[in-house]
Amino acid sequence: LCLVMSSSAITAEAVSDEKNIEENGTSKMRKCPKCKAHGQDTIWKGHKRLCPYKRCSCVRCKLVDERRHITKQQVRLYRNPDESPADALNGLDGIQEPLEKRLNRAAVDVPTLYLVILKACHYDLERSMMVIAQAKEEIKHAQEQATLYSQMLCF
């Protein structure tokens, strides 16, 4: 015997379960962050395939996706400290190799990289901005060198 429930029935059932749990005081059910960004209170459990905002690309949903991505990167860095981009940024004052090589080796997205640089600079925003500007200059210089090198190889 197969029972098929509509999404509204699942949501109603989840809401009743949540009320029972909150009355007992044991724990709260997690809410869907995309629905929450759109002002809806939907239980996350069993909602993944049914979420109306699953493929939404509005600013709020992009922010939720970015937060998920950053959290995913932080968990990855926590679980694999050997791959940490913080290792690539250690010793900013005494640079042994060009910064762009260390940043490329780190292979993380820009928001996470900015957070790592800010942390490496002990949350000194001015110093962080200087490090980022220096990295951009070194990357620009490396790109120019690579262009010149590739032109030399072609002739």
From TrEMBL:
Residue ranges: DNA binding: 32-79
UniProt source species: Platynereis dumerilii (Dumeril's clam worm)
UniProt feature coiled coil, ranges: 125-152
GO CC terms: nucleus
Taxonomic lineage from the root: Eukaryota, Metazoa, Spiralia, Lophotrochozoa, Annelida
Compartmental location: Nucleus
Domain DM: 32-79
PROSITE patterns: DM_1 (PS40000), DM_2 (PS50809)
The keyword DNA-binding is assigned to this record: yes
UniProt xrefs under Gene3D superfamilies: DM DNA-binding domain
InterPro entries recorded: DM_DNA-bd, DM_DNA-bd_sf, DMRT
Main location: nucleus
Gene Ontology MF terms in the entry: DNA-binding transcription factor activity, RNA polymerase II-specific; metal ion binding; RNA polymerase II cis-regulatory region sequence-specific DNA binding
Gene Ontology biological process: sex differentiation
Keywords, alphabetical: Coiled coil, DNA-binding, Metal-binding, Nucleus, Zinc
UniProt-recorded name of the protein: Doublesex-and mab-3-related transcription factor 1-like-2
